[in-house]
Amino acid sequence: MEALLPLVRCPVTCEPLSLVEGDESEGILATEEDGHEYPVLGGVPVLVPDAAAFLARHRDAVVAALAEEGRVSKATIALLHEVVDGVRGDDYQAFAEDWTAREVDTDAPGFEVPEGETGAPIRALVEQGDPWKRIAAAVPEGARDVVEIGPGAGPLTAHLAKGRKLLLVDRSLRALFTAARGKGAVQLLVGEAEALPLAPESADAVVAANVIDLLGDPMSFLARAATVLRPGGKLVLTSPDPWPWEEDPEAAEALFAHVGLTLETFEDDLLWLREHGPREIQLYRMQLVVARR
Ligand SMILES: C[S@@+](CC[C@H](N)C(=O)[O-])C[C@H]1O[C@@H](n2cnc3c(N)ncnc32)[C@H](O)[C@@H]1O
Question: What is the pTM of this model?
Answer without folding.
Answer: 0.96
